[in-house]
Amino acid sequence: MIMNDLAGSRLTLDRGLQALLDTVAQDPTGPLTVGIAGPGGHGKTTLLAELERVHRQAGVSVRTTAPQPGEPVEDDTLVLVDDAHLLDDARVGVLLRLVGTRRHRLVVAHRPWPRSAALSELVDALRRDGQAVLLTPFTREQTAEYLAARPELGRGNDLVDFVHTQSAGVPRDVERLTRGLAGAEARTGTLVNPPRSVILEFGSDLDVEPAPVRRLLLAVAAGGALPVSMLGALLGTDPAGVDEVIATTRAAGLLGADGRLAPIVRRAVTTLSPTTDRTAVWRRLTESQLARGGAVLPLVRSLLAVGALCLCRAPAPVDAPVLR
């Protein structure tokens, strides 16, 4: 995985990405066909920026937008495309034709969802003719390596455990939390909660998500098991629609592959969501649980833990898988 440090000058890489950058640095004009997949906040844009920097420094022409249909692209130009999952089929088709010529150097980054048929064909072509890179969360060791660049924060295991647990290793959130801790007043004792300034940074992430995603996040933040039938009633959709909302939320880097929210995301969701939205979602969950004859007490305990039924209490840490 890859992510800028706070000063924007250091990268934290796994061996595969380090090998890719080493190869590019040794031969900036050599063959290069790469597909980069990863949820939001996992470092796609940072990796593209580093590839752009290396190539421009070597005097290579770089293009950072997908060409329009019919628009010529010089063979010696490196084409870097971010957020390819947002492109229409026509521009994806242009990229697919560039791969097919085997004359162009191309790096395409995208989220795992949404995945149109055209994008799937492009991803397959990039993998077949070059290499596929999958960006995943930091391991604890990578989080420790990232924190080592900020010696003023200390090097204790408690700091590493706090940052890694709160962020679930998502590079964007490791960066945010590290920056927030570095800017906070001198701390004493054990770290318990992230600085409020860090929580507020999630506001823009939540604001751009569609209403079904925000409702899903509030439901997951309540804790407890959430059957597809209950989520379908909450989201007003069928099981396939529930799967799509879950995939979208995961692709945004807000929901883990295990169906959990990282503690820092859970706190942001419960803190920053409008009160009316929180109340509506959590009341609907309670009503759905009653209607299906399920036990209400575990859900009520979860709602109490995140402040749904008593706003004076702070969100508790995530303690159970939630989607099944």
From TrEMBL:
<dbReference type="InterPro" id="IPR027417">
    <property type="entry name" value="P-loop_NTPase"/>
</dbReference>
<protein>
    <recommendedName>
        <fullName>AAA+ ATPase domain-containing protein</fullName>
    </recommendedName>
</protein>
